[in-house]
Amino acid sequence: MRVGLLGLGRIGAFHAATLAAHPLVEELIVADPVRTSPYGRPGDPFEADRLVIATPTGTHAELLARAIAQGIPVFCEKPVAPSVEETVEVLEAAKGHLVQIGFQRRFDPGYASARAELASLGVLHRVHLVTADPSPPPEEYIRTSGGIFRDCHIHDFDILRWVTGREAVQVYATGANRGDPFFGVHGDIDTSVALITLDDGTLATLQGSRYNGAGYDVRMELAGSQGTRAVGLSPRSPMRSTEGLDPGETPWPDFVTRFRQAYVNEIDAFLRAETSPCTIDDALAALYLAEAAEVSRREGRPVEITEVKR
Questions:
Q1: What is the mean pLDDT of residues 232-249?
Q2: Any idea where the domains of the chain sit in the sequence?
Q3: Domain 106-258+284-307 listed as CATH 3.30.360.10
């Protein structure tokens, strides 16, 4: 098949290499206004049989709408759009069309195992989620990112739904600025905490940081009446025990390295898909939780998910 790729930034460049090496891809057509790639040929990606969108966030809705109008199956990095309203518009237009949204943690072997083994834990009582970057992105990125809950923790919100099979009903979030002042200037935070209540009463806690100097740390812990599981604990976890337990390997430096196989797996799933394994509805559900978390942080109160739904 012919595959088109829009965007050759960090993740776009990775997708280009993955697509070029895939046995189903006969031709790769790439486009980026400022970058080039050693993979594929320049051209109009909308001439392809399937399309991958890895452009800046603000362009996603327009490009998705064009692909949908032309009947091209499309993969798009999160988010679908910057706002709930725009996401709902794309959702309505995409009914009956193959659209896969890029939440790569669903394709990570550790998270997939946790989902498969969930029933063996008995009654699930609590979940803990961590996403911590080793260093912050630049100010120009933060200016338009939408905030840590929409930009970063939306991955935690999606994987919480996917692994547990439950929906969030309430969130109580807060945060702090402990680093560069530009986070506060742009109404954002660099340290985040949230308490999430799921629809069966299970409690989930979340913490995040833009300043985890030890390395890139992403984990999920699930504790039930019959057992526990942890995703993300490995010899490369950026943690050291005061009791002398040392993972012994170089910590994960960034998200691309940590989730390399997951990114490969999700592109493979898209190329083979007849129905989407990660839909716009899924993306909207995660966005609702991110929106509620941001309202909670700003207003200092628990927020029901129904308050932000459209």
A1: 86
A2: 2-105, 106-258+284-307
A3: yes
> In sequence order, which residues have a C-beta less than 8 Å from that of residue 242 and are 6 or more positions away?
none
What integer pLDDT is reported at residue 297 of this predicted model? 98
**28 residue type, one letter:** L
- The class level of CATH for 2-105 reads alpha beta
Q: Where are the alpha helices (DSSP H) in 78-225?
A: 84-93, 109-116, 139-144, 148-151, 154-164, 182-185
Q: Which of 55, 62, 92 is nearest to 77 (CA)?
A: 55
CA distance 215 to 249: 12
Rounded CA separation 123/127 (Å)? 12
The overall pTM is greater than 0.90: yes
pLDDT attached to residue 310: 83
Instruction: Count H helices and E strands in the chain, helices first.
Output: 11, 13
Q: Which long-range contacts (CB under 8 A, 24 or more apart) does 209-213 make?
A: 209/132, 209/133, 210/132, 210/133, 210/135, 210/136, 210/137, 210/148, 210/179, 210/183, 211/133, 211/135, 211/136, 211/178, 211/179, 212/132, 212/133, 212/134, 212/238, 213/134, 213/135
The predicted-structure confidence for 276-292, as pLDDT tens digits, reads as follows 999 999 999 999 999 99
The pLDDT confidence band at residue 242, using thresholds 50, 70 and 90, is: confident
Query: Hey, what are 76's tokens?
Result: 């798009």
Give backbone dihedrals phi and psi of 64, rounded to 5 degrees, phi first.
-60, -45
Nearest to 170 by CA among 204, 146, 193: 204
> Under 8 Å CB-to-CB from 168, ≥6 apart: which residues?
157, 160, 161, 196, 197, 198, 199, 204, 289, 292, 305
Token pair recorded at residue 133: 């970057």
Tokens of residue 257, six digits: 């390295």
Provide CB contacts within 8 A for 83, sequence distance 6+: none
Taking the C-alpha atoms of residue 254 and residue 86, their distance in angstroms, rounded to an integer, is: 30
Which band of pLDDT confidence, cut at 50, 70 and 90, is reported for residue 248? confident
